[in-house]
Design goal:
- The chain is globular, with a radius of gyration of 23 Å.
- It is built from 11 helices and 11 strands.
- The protein is 44% helix and 23% strand.
- The chain folds into 3 domains: 81 residues, Winged helix-like DNA-binding domain superfamily/Winged helix DNA-binding domain (Arc Repressor Mutant, subunit A, Orthogonal Bundle), CATH 1.10.10; 110 residues, 3-Layer(aba) Sandwich (D-Maltodextrin-Binding Protein, domain 2); 103 residues, D-Maltodextrin-Binding Protein, domain 2 (3-Layer(aba) Sandwich), CATH 3.40.190.
- 28% of the residues are buried.
- The strands form 3 sheets. Strands 3, 4, 5, 6, 9, 10 and 11 form a 7-stranded mixed sheet that branches.
- Helix 8 links the parallel strand 7 and strand 8.
């Protein structure tokens, strides 16, 4: 056998994504290039690694065994690279962070200076839904996560990065009549929700229940960006986190209407499992956050005030 590290990495990504197309996107390769690497890798085994059923790719049991071995090999090679860098006096290692979807407007600003100052660190940041973030924490797949509501089912430690405020949002047409129109729209206009399990949706539903508001019509979308675009287009109104609306508010494309009970305020929390043994990279990142979070807030987020 004469397979390469590149072939191992490509095959591992295929097993993780269950798709040649998705693997190509993640690896920044063309689909034909990934297919060729898979075929060349398969040619070195007599037992099938994958199979196509109904135009879908499935990894065989043998394929999964090879993928596990590939993951271990790649990890060992990475460790060699990290150790080499550490002997040169560099902070090295991997920092894995899982971020709820709206947190993509927050986390990069608390990472960029740390990563740029430590070139030996490999960053893996996964932006996903709340349930996947909780699963990643619970299965110890990440070092940290960013959430706006602390999950009660996990025993976590945390650092508060900044406030998370949610307001009633509409376009210019919705709010041209002022305060009374907002109260009316809450019961009559289409109300746009995030998907089940979203922290934004949970906060929105709790507010509506507490206020005794029963929406006449509901729309459901699966990302904060999709909700924002729907509100801009006039499909309805929504209660949304302020953090992702800066440009639209400044341009006057969207508007906030003050209404009793809003804003809803929570915190953006950097969290990790209590009792987790932090790596040198993780410890260094926490020290960076403790030292710099106030300055980072003033430079990037003071507009929230």
């Amino acid at each position: 056998m004469n397979y390469t590290l590149h072939q191992l990495a490509v095959f591992l990504k295929i097993t993780q994504t269950q798709s040649i197309t998705k693997a190509a996107i993640d690896l920044h390769l063309t689909q034909p290039a990934v297919s060729i690497q898979l075929r060349n890798f398969q040619d070195q085994f007599e037992i099938p690694l994958t199979e196509i059923v109904g135009r879908r790719l499935f990894v065989t049991d043998f394929g999964y065994e090879i993928a596990l071995a590939a993951e271990r090999i790649i990890e060992e090679v990475n460790m060699i690279n990290f150790k080499t860098s550490s002997y040169k006096g560099m902070l090295t290692g991997r920092l894995r962070i899982s971020v709820v979807s709206t947190g993509k407007y927050v986390m990069p600003y608390f990472l960029s200076e740390f990563i740029n100052a430590n070139k030996g660190i490999e960053l893996e940041m996964d932006v996903t839904n709340k349930s996947m973030v909780i699963e990643s924490l619970n299965q110890n797949k990440v070092d940290f996560a960013l959430v706006s509501l602390l999950p009660k089912e996990l025993n976590l430690e945390n650092r508060i990065l900044l406030e998370n405020k949610l307001y009633l949002i509409g376009n210019n047409q919705h709010f041209q009549n002022g305060h009374q129109s907002a109260l009316k729209f809450l019961t009559e206009a289409p109300l746009i929700f995030r998907e089940e399990g979203s922290a934004t949706r949970l906060l929105m539903e709790n507010f509506l229940k507490t206020s005794g508001v029963k929406p006449n019509m509901k729309l459901q979308l699966t990302s904060n960006e999709a909700v924002k675009q729907a509100v801009i287009a006039g499909l309805g109104i929504s209660i949304m986190p302020l953090i992702g609306l800066k440009n639209e508010l400044e341009k006057g494309i969207l508007n906030i209407l003050p209404i009793e009970g809003l804003p809803i305020t929570t915190d953006w929390n950097l969290v990790w499992m209590k009792g987790k043994v932090l790596s040198p990279v993780s410890k260094a990142y926490l020290e960076f956050i403790d030292k710099n979070k106030k300055d980072l807030f003033e430079r990037h987020f003071n507009w929230i005030r």
